[in-house]
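Predict structure. Chain length: 210.
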Amino acid sequence: MNFFSKIIYPVGWFWMTLACVFLFLTTSVYLTFRDDINFLLAKPDLVHNLVWRTAFYFHIVSGMACIVTGPFQFVPYLRKKHVAFHRNLGKIYIAAILFLAGPTGLYMAFYANGGFWSGAGFFVLSLLWWLTTYLAYRYILKGNVVRHRQFMTYSFALTFSAVTLRIWVPLLSNFFHMDHEFTIVVTAWINWIPNLCMAHLFVKLFPNRL
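Prediction complete.
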């Protein structure tokens, strides 16, 4: 346990945070509001739809807030020595998901590439994302810190699916040479299910590290 606390956890947190910051920086390209970049190029039928485009930008901005604030919720030093900072970051993270990222994710799932099964994967992801975050919020209001930390762990595991999605897609396409449409459907599920399983395992094996 001591080895885990001193070596494994900090190293894992460092690489996780680095991935989150990298995603934050690469995603910021969408704030140019151009319609000829990356994901938007695959949405020619929706890119000029005002409702969808508005939901997309709300999702991007709120998602960026989540991915860059989330890792710092798991730093024991900040929780103990800088309580106000921890709480303010938590408020940003929770509000971003409950009011923007979660609802827009549910809406955009209906327009996901890959058809019904891909959309279903992203819909379930968004629903669980919203629910785990809401429960984390409810538990801290009740003063149940243990359950709050557990559900924040689940919530961030789902937030981190934004990173794992961008790992799985090129991995399955370029190394396993899977069909593009099949890759889209598969990654709509495996970008978050393993994350949630790992989070559950972490909660059960290392409850005192939360």
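Summary: The chain has a mean pLDDT of 94.
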